[in-house]
From TrEMBL:
SUPFAM superfamilies named among the record's database cross-references: CheY-like (SSF52172), Homeodomain-like (SSF46689)
Boundaries of every HTH araC/xylS-type domain copy: 417-515
Gene3D superfamilies referenced in this protein's UniProt entry, alphabetically: 3.40.50.2300, Homeodomain-like (1.10.10.60)
Name the UniProt record assigns to this protein: Two component transcriptional regulator, AraC family
Keyword Glycosyltransferase carried by entry: no
Biological process, per Gene Ontology: phosphorelay signal transduction system
A GO molecular-function descriptor: sequence-specific DNA binding
Domain Response regulatory: 3-120
Positions of post-translational 4-aspartylphosphate modification: D55
Top-level division of the source organism's lineage: Bacteria
Annotated keywords: DNA-binding, Phosphoprotein, Transcription, Transcription regulation
Source species: Treponema succinifaciens (strain ATCC 33096 / DSM 2489 / 6091)
Length: 522
């Protein structure tokens, strides 16, 4: 029998976890619960607890303090951290002081089941109760990566037939309804490639089954399997992929580069999708970023290519995708210069797109107003360098995209509007999906589903975007330090704020503020 303790200051979270554990491990577990860190420490001092689920953010003794105390009382206890996405720095600190793993809220049933199963194996190993099975698993652990790498090489270099690919997937016990490829370039030298590969596999596998292997110096290819039940990708594939990329960037480094292929359901397209991901990776910015293969330009040339980019920019703008607009804007300006357009012609093209952007913002809401657009023509006439033009172009487009995104609030479900107000009011505080659901008087599961249906993005992504947008405005409109702005929008770690700001806007907070000031002084 395994003794499992669940510690969270919200009873609904405890009930959810214990329901999942009891249903899937009936007869194997004794369950204990605690509503605070101090209660958890007290229970561990009295009972022989094997596995602990610990929330980070609790009143009184925090989860981090409780973990430290528990590790001194029972070093062998397997501790799983519960954390919201935007509390990642705390989860990371918990890992540093001995936690086994962290999982994000709201919890995913399959992840909880697999985490408990792995934790039980670790308890057995620490207690010395595993024998021949453990030795066999160790041998399989040696063979598994070799076969995994062979599969990746076969995909890249087209060295296998459909039957061979199916045999590989059968070996890995992977049911594949649909799949996509991700090719990721690790910042720094290739000596850390194996550690980085393990982190990539770990983060992606929290949502999907995947196979990963290095194929060139500091590059990793990942085959991601999607079953039909993986509804997260049906509505917004790009948003979900960006969420994974953000987690990888925080864990591995700021200059992470990645290319993502389209989704496919045909095994005969495995090699083609892999090549699409590599091609997308090759087109990403050297400073880091994410590019989808469906955003690559067709094999057009000259004016057709310029027009295609212009249309893509305006389409992403109407969707309120500030990050996508910024990336395409860089390609657009680069293409104009590559084709040796005269400076006046470049400025004219930028002016026309910004007027379209302004009209799109006005169409989204009659309340649109931005002083920066009142003198666009005169401001453009004063700029001569490529860098200044690009920054001006990207900033104005981002402002329009962010407004269009936020203007969708007016068309939302009344309950979702109520939650929007809660988010705005508590933007500087630590709050979770459960907090918002409690405020709205519904379950967290219902709110999560409704929020995605109404807004097209997850609750966590929406909160993060609102915080970053407020931070961007404060960088423009106040003299507060980066640390002060970070605290004002709910981030206690300014380094974390800087990383996710750059992931979204493609520029650090400091550089963004300097660029904005320089453009105002012209």
């Amino acid at each position: 029998m395994y003794n499992i303790l669940t510690c969270d200051d919200e009873q609904i979270m405890i009930d959810s976890l214990q329901f999942i554990i009891k249903k899937n491990f009936e007869g194997q577990v004794n369950l204990f619960s605690a509503l605070s860190g101090s209660d958890a420490v007290s229970i561990v001092s009295r009972e022989k607890i094997d596995i602990i689920f610990m929330d980070i953010n609790m009143p009184g003794m925090s989860g981090l303090d409780a973990i430290s105390c528990i590790k001194s009382l029972k070093p062998s206890a397997v501790i799983i951290v519960l954390s919201a996405f935007d509390k990642f720095q705390y989860a990371q600190e918990a890992m540093n002081i001995g936690a086994y793993k962290y999982i994000t809220k709201p919890v995913n049933r399959n992840i909880v089941i697999q985490t408990v199963r792995n934790a039980m194996n670790l308890v057995d190993e620490r207690n010395g109760t595993t024998s021949g099975n453990l030795e066999l698993q160790k041998k399989l652990d040696i063979v598994y990566p070799m076969i995994e790498s062979d599969f990746i090489y076969s995909c890249i270099f087209s060295k296998a037939k459909n039957e061979d690919f199916k045999s590989y997937l059968d070996y890995f016990n992977m049911k594949v309804d649909e799949f996509f490829f991700a090719c990721i370039e690790i910042p720094g030298s290739e000596k850390n490639i194996y550690e980085a590969c393990a982190k990539i596999r770990k983060i992606i596998s929290q949502k999907f089954k995947c196979l990963a292997g290095s194929f060139m110096t500091n590059r990793v290819a990942v085959f991601v399997s999607m079953e039909k039940s993986a509804e997260i990708f049906e509505d917004d594939f790009h948003s979900a992929a960006r969420e994974i990329f953000t987690l990888l960037s925080v864990e591995i480094g700021q200059k992470l580069r990645a290319g993502i292929s389209n989704i496919s359901g045909k095994l005969e397209e495995v090699s083609d999708r892999c090549k699409d991901a590599i091609q997308a990776l090759n087109r990403t910015s050297p400073d880091g970023g994410l590019l989808f293969s469906d955003e690559l330009l067709n094999s057009s040339s000259g004016d057709e290519k310029i027009q295609e980019l212009c249309e893509r920019i305006l389409n992403r703008l109407k969707l309120g995708d500030a990050a996508g607009v910024q990336f395409l804007a860089e390609h657009y300006i680069g293409e104009l210069y590559e084709q040796n357009f005269p400076l006046d012609k470049i400025k004219g093209n930028i002016f026309e797109i910004l007027i379209e952007a302004k009209n799109s913002a006005k169409s989204a809401s009659s309340s649109w107003k931005n002083a920066a657009f009142e003198n666009i023509f005169s401001d453009l006439s004063k700029i001569d360098s490529k860098t200044e033009l690009l920054n001006f172009f990207k900033n104005r487009l981002s402002e329009c995209a962010a407004f269009i995104c936020s203007s969708k609030d007016e068309k939302e479900n009344p309950l979702v509007k109520k939650v929007f107000g809660y988010i705005q009011e508590h933007i500087a505080e630590n709050f979770s999906l459960d907090d918002a659901a409690s405020f709205a008087g519904v379950s967290s599961f219902y709110l999560s589903k409704l929020f995605k249906e109404e807004t097209g993005e997850t609750f966590i992504n929406y909160v993060t975007d609102r915080r970053l947008e407020k931070g961007r405005l404060m960088l423009c409109e106040t003299e507060l330090s980066i640390k002060e702005i970070s605290a004002e929008i709910g981030y206690n770690d300014q380094n974390y704020f800087s990383r996710i700001f750059k992931n979204k806007f493609g520029i650090s907070p400091t550089d963004f503020r300097n660029t904005n000031r320089n453009s105002e002084s012209l």
